[in-house]
Structures are given as structure tokens and as C-alpha cells.
Predict the 3D structure of the following.
Amino acid sequence: MINLYRVGSWVVGTEFYNRGNHLPDILTYSTVGIWIIGNRRVGKTSLLRTAECQAANSNLYLPLFWDMQGDTSEAQLIESLLEAVENAQWSEVDQRWPSIELPENAAGINQALRRVTAQVKNLYHCRLLLLCDEIEGLNQLGQQEPHVLSELRRVMQQHPAIRTVLTSTRRLSRLYAIQQQQDTSLFLEGFEPRYLTNFDDETANQVICCTQSAHPLTVSEALQAQIRFFSGNHPLILQKVCQQLFDTSIGTLRPFAQNDFILDDQLSGTFQQDFDSLTPDEAKLLLFINSQEISYEQIEQTFSQFSQSGLRRMLHDLTQLGFLRLIDNLYQAGSIPLGEWLAAGPTHHTPQGGVTNRVMREVAQERVASLQRQLIACMRHLGELELRQAKQGLETPPHIITEIEAYKQKIVDIEAELAELGENITLVQPPQSE
Amino acid sequence: MKVLIIEDRRENVVFIANNILKPRGYEVISAMDGPTGLSKAIEESPDLLIVDLKLPGMDGLEVLRQLKEQGINIPSIIMTFHGTEETVVRAIRLGGVKDYLTKPFTVEEMLAALDRAFETDEKLSLSRKSRQESIFQNPYVAGPPIINPKMFYGRQSDLKKIVLLLTHNFVMLVGRRRIGKTSLLHQLVHYLPKLKKKPERYIPTLVNMEGTPEVEFFHTIMEEIINTCQGHLSATTIGNLSFEINNVMYSPRTFSRDLQTILKDLHNTIPKPSRLVLMLDEMDTLNSYSLQTQSQLRRIFQRFANTNLSVIVAGVKLQKHWAGESSPFYNMFVPVTLTPFPESEAHHLITEPVNGIYAYNDEAIYCVLEASLGLPHRIQQLCLEVINHVLATFRGPWIIKEDVDSVLQTIQWLDEEITGQDQNLASAKHVATLEIELKRSREEVTLFAQRLYEYEKAEKANEQALRLAQERATKLEKAIERAKAEVEKLSQKDKPLMGITAETQVDKNLLGELITDKQKLQEKIELLEQEVAEAKQLREALKVTNERARNLERALNHARSVSPQVGPVQDDQEAR
């Protein structure tokens, strides 16, 4: 029996499971473009590919899936557009594409797109549905060739026969900052931003049981709940866990044991990339929550420098993107592996992108302060308990002795972590000039 | 061919016999316990034994041992449960064991084990025939990858895992240098086309990317694809390709177009569609390429993700670097990490290549295992040197610890530069094991303490109850005595009347009730005494466990101090 779960590559057809209102939004007749924001491996490409299949041969649109991976110049954009049209011609998803001519030798990306659109309009009297994936390269394009970005904005947003759907990670939002230094209209302002979140519980269960496949699996509700909690319904983690638990000899999932799953390089790399897309404040907040369960009040107390609305917005964004989840009014890491990754400590994360040394240092300092508070509290409790032990002597109840041992251990642990953090704070200090 | 199945579960015997052996023409005999199995193995002389390790009367290991003692050497496959690897190793050391299967296993796994059992047996008889010549040969391969499948040992679970993943996923094979990635890819080249039952025919294409200049990257891959697929493609398809052997200026778009043409043709092959399995070895080369090329390659792979193309990339540090804005190249692959061999596989690799020609004693095997740290290339290198040493000294076929020791004094490991890492890894494993044990021990302490607390809470109440019960027992005793006297007195009075009066009967009944009460009380007292004794035992157990936890902590601290670089903050995925 084949392992039905997919890790890494995009899915369509029966392997694609419901993603809320995104598909109807993409397929509806509208002039407004959409920007779908989601973390890596959350299913953006699958959403676009499914939209491509569903819009195929319709009267409203002729869909074109355009993978802009790594395109940072106009020449590269033209090349990838040609490749996209060629792929559409060959893939046979929409039978109309073979009649469209390749816009070879176009003077620019604007002209190339216009040529394709004109043919679509003349031959099929419908609009071109541009499904653009992996568009983060536009950040660099905005810096190096801002006029190309302006042209692209004009044709993507204002051409009456084009509707554009973009998908990217949060990294693309740097484009706002890049363009604000220039005297041009903001590229992203013409698009309605939407978050692509993790699966909801019902969809997650469907994926676990492969309900849309020819051979659905019978998985106990308890195991489903366990997988959902562990993965936080993150599509990649969920499928990875299921793939690992799938037992060919019994044709279904075997019971879940936490030791089964290790935080591999693929997942660590994905977390790192997602983490780097955060702003310094968001990163700081996430590192503070770490693998703990924390109430809003506790967060607010620690981050008193933020306005209430700003803090709530950050928490909302982080929750939407799957970095956090809210269970019983307590915030915690979006999934168990993410919690583990964060708990590995700030020094494990190479400061890249949005996360600076300063943030790392600040977070470490806050942790030190928190640990010191805990240490004082522990010592006070320990003192009280030891006093009771001294008074009661041999009559001391065993639970008091156990508690004393537990506090002693906790103090040792805190001291060890403090020592470690002390070293790490020193490690991330910028070098002193001589 | 006669196969004897020794297994105590009838349904398993029926399953193996009816679904696997009989349809393939094997004659099957069976035994449900150890002693019967042993006698049948002696009397019937089967060609193969399939033995469960856990058997009534005599376990599977003992059956094999007794057969060996009697000089009967029948090739065998052993069946075991997960977590009994130590027993498996002991069974393998007895010799004659060709493979083992962990329950539950599939039909395919049993078939593969049968193939291996008969294949190695055939190889053994051949090698025995030519023993005189073989004794002067050295079969180990140290350095180059293992290309001949007959010389490839271990890694069966990795092979199966990759095959199961192939249809739906792209695979990234990672692992340190010389761990056997290239050898495994070569084995896939042999293994994949033999999978007849799959709905698609696999066409593996292995390309070594080491040192390929960036401009020739796509050209190199396509050249190899065409070489491999030529026999499966129509002349028209080949004619339609834009690829030119002498023109390395081959754009990614043209590559993508040609690949599309080839895949389309392969999809229509008869009698079943073909799947191109593109295996790119030494893909660390990609790290030196521009982000553009990496992105282009990812785009192409993404494009063909749901077609009849499977991709396996292999490298050491493929996923470590990514500076691009868009998705990293590596995150569309399922990582499969090659680790050092487990002991049973390492044992197999040491003994099997020279089975029937040379024999290692247990000490020598331990010595090789210890020095090699389970790294297959080290095992091969060490064993190669050991055989050379034995050949040079013109000794008999027995390899002893001194042979291994003498080689170890002079050996220059081919992976000398990573010896530190190996030791680090071993220390890390040791520390991790101790940490787990310590954690368990602490949990035990907490559990005991909690239980003790409960017991002690109950103990006071028990003591009180015991005291009351004992007091009541004394009172009852007295009451019984009194009642007995009363009954006696009344009986004496009744005697002359030749009957028992109602008064005497009432007293007799009361006496009976009192005796029952006393018995119940006695039982309760025993129970309470038992509980008090248990509490005492628990205290003792808590003391012992606490002591164990302290010892473990000391050991852990020692282990950490011995290898200070192995700490919880070490940023090394492998160590973690």
C-alpha cells in the first residue's frame, strides 16, 4: 500500500483539501487583485494550482500559473513568463492555451503580458487570471529596477482584462519600506491581503483520514486529536507526522509516540525562514512566549512598551500565520515542533533577516530577569519548607520532602539556564572596537 | 525446496505458508514449539528454517544453538518483535542466520528475506567450492562506492523507505561524508527496475554532479537522462529534443521543454507507464551556484511534481545555506538521513563478505564494532586491513582480536578529519542515554514519593483501625468464651429434657455470628498488616531509586566533563 501523504510538493484534485473561502474569492469575477500571505509550506502553491484547474475552460478566465521563483530582474520575469505560457500549453489543464502564441522578443514585461492578454481577449473573450507564485523576488526588483515594478503594477492592477492573484510569505511586505523611499505608487496597495492559515480541525481530520482518496483510512478520534495538537494543523507537519505513522503492514496509522518525530533539517530550515520574515518586535514576542503557555495579561505586563492595539495586532498576525495558537485563553507556540525549535534557545537561531543581534540580546535579557524572579520565589518557598522540615523533624510528611527536592532541582535548573544565558548574552555582543 | 516454520501462532504459520511459500512452490512443514521444531529440523533436514524467537518449551535462539551444537547448519530467517535486537544479534552470531524480520511484516518483506536467504546460501556454496582460491582474496571494499548488489549489506529499511516515498514525494538523502549515500543510490539503480508489482516501471538515472560547472549543469543532467532513457523512447521523441551533445549552452527553459517531451513519451510506454527516477548525487555542488540557477532548478522540479518524475538528491550540507528571498531549494524534499549501522547490520557487514572463508571470533567482532562506531566505510576499511594482515601472516581462517588490534595500531582512517566528530557523536549519544535514564529515574522517584505519601496518609488511619480492630477482637474473644460457657451450661440443663430449648438455640446462633465476626476481623487485620508492610517496602524502594538517580547524575556530570563540547547548547543537528 502506498503512503498517501505528501510532504513538500504541491497537491491538486482529491489531494487538495478545503482552504476556507480562498478558492471562491479567487474564482469570482472581480477586478480587485488578491495577495495571499502565508508561511512557507502552508499550501500556497497548491491553492493556486487548484484555482488553475477550477478556472480552466471557464467563460470568465483563462488561468495562467506563473512561478516567479528567484526572478529579480525584468529579463528573468520575461523568461519565466514565457516558461509559464509554454507549461500551460503543454500541461493541458486548459485546452485553450495551445492557441495562444508565445510573446517572444517582447520589449519588456509589460508588453509581454499585454500581448498574451490581447490574444486571450480576442480569441476567448475572457480575462487572463494571473496566478503568481513565489513573488518575493520583487523585493529586489523594487530596489534595482523600480520602474519595472511600476510597469508591472500598472498592468497587473489596471489592465481591464487581467486579474492578478499573488502568493508570498510576509517577506514581501518589505516592499512597502523599499517603495516608500521612492517616489512611486506602492505595488502592494492595489491588492487585498488575505492570510492563508493552518487547516481548521475538520479539514485536518479529513487530511489525516485521507477522506478524499479512493481508500480512506480509519483513524481513531483520539489519534486524530493527538496529531492535530502536535502539528497545530500545520499542513507540512501534519503530513510529515502522518507519513511517518503510516504503517504499510496494517494499512493505517499506528499509535503516535512523541519520540517518533524529530525536528529535522527540513522543518528547522522552514521555521528559520519563517522566523526571519518577522519584524524584530514580532520575533521578540515569539521568543518570549517560546514553548510556554502565557495569558494575554502576562504578555501585556512584559511588553508594556507596546500599545494595546499594537500588541493585539501582532498577536493576531502571529496567530493567523500559525506561529501562535490560543488554547483556553493561553497563547502558546503554533505547534509542538515549533515550540521545541523556539525552546532550543535564541543562540540556536542564526540572526538573519528581520531578527537582529539586538533582539536576541533583549530577549535573552528578559529571560534572565524572568528567571531571576523565579529563582527568588523558589528560594523563598524552599526556605519556608525547610523551616517546616526542621520543626517537624522525623515527622515531616513525605510530600514536604518531595517538594523540597523538587524546588532544589528547579533552582539548579534555573541557575544552569542563567549561567548559559549569561554566556550567550556575551556571545551575541557586537565586537568591541579597539 | 523444503521450509520448516517454527512458530507458536497458528494464524502466522497459515499466513506464511498459504500466502508466501506454497504459491511459490515451496514444500512447507511446521512446528508449534521449540522441542518439536528442533526434532523436525534434525529429522526432516529442511532447506530453510523460519523461526520465531519466542516459542513455548524452548526459544528460537536455543533451537538454533542446539542445531549448531549438533553440527547441523540450516540457513534460517528469524522472526522477532521490535525491541529484541540484542537477541537478534546473538542469533546472528550463532551463524546460519540469513536475515531477520520484525513483526508485523509484509509479504514483500518476507519475499525479500527469502530471496536473500537463498541468494546468500547459493553464494556461500559457490564460495565454498572455490574456497582454495577465495582464501587469497579480500572481498571488502574500502573507498569506492559499492556498486555490486551482492556486496551490499544493510540499509534495507532505508531502501524500502525511499521506495515507499518515491511516488508522492521528492527525496533528499542526507548524511555525513562516506556514510554510504552513493552506494545506496547505486543500489537503487539495481533495485528499482526489479520492482515488478508497482503500477509503473521505474527508470533510474544516476548523475554525479561533483565538479559540474554551473553553465553545464542542465546539459549534464539531460545528457544522462537521454543515455538512460534512450531504449525506452521513440525515435520521434528523440528527434524532437533540442538537446545537442556538443553544445553545453543549454538553457533551463530548453531543459524543461525536453524533459516534458521525454516524460510524456515515458508515460505512454507499454505495457505500463514508466517513471523517471532522477538521482542527483553530490548535490553540494549546488551550494556554489548562483541563486538564480538554484531557483530555476526548483521551479523545474516544482513544475513536474505531479508527473511521472521522481527526484532524489544526495549531499552532505544541501540544506544549510539559503540566502534567497523566495522558497529555499531544499524545502520541497522529504529528508532521509543515513545514520551509522545498528549493531546487527554492522555485524552482518563484518562477517558476511567472508562467510565460509574466514571466521571472526566474538572478541574480534566486538573490537571492529567498537573501533568503527558503526560507520560502514570504517568497518570495510578495518576488515580489509585485517584480512590483508591475516593473508600476510599465512595463518588459518580464524580472525582473532589480536589481528584487529594489530591493524588498529597502524590504520590511517580514510575519514581522519572527522574522527573528532565521531567521538563527539559517541559522547553525545552516551550523554543523551544517561539523560534519558536520569529522567526516567526521576520520574520513578516522583511516582514512588507520591505513592508513599498516599500510603502514609492511609497508614495512620490503618493503624487506628488496626488498634480498634484488635481491641474489638479481644472483646469478641471474651464474648465468645462467655457465649460458649453459656451454651454449655444450657446444654447441660437441656440434656435431661432430651432436646434443645429455644433459649439455647438463640445462644448458639449468637455464638456462630460472633465466630464469623471474628474471622472477618482477622482478615481485616491481615490486610492492614499487609498494607503497613507494603509502605515499608515502598520506602526502601524510594531510597534505592533515589540512590540510583544520584548515581546517574554523577555519571552524567562525569560524561559531560569528559566531553565538555557535548552540552545541551550544542548547535549540531546530528548530535541533538
About this structure: Residues 339 and 459 of chain B are 53 Å apart (CA to CA). Chain B is about 55% helix and 10% strand. The two ends of chain B are 49 Å apart (CA to CA). Chain B touches chain A through 55 residues (CB under 8 Å).
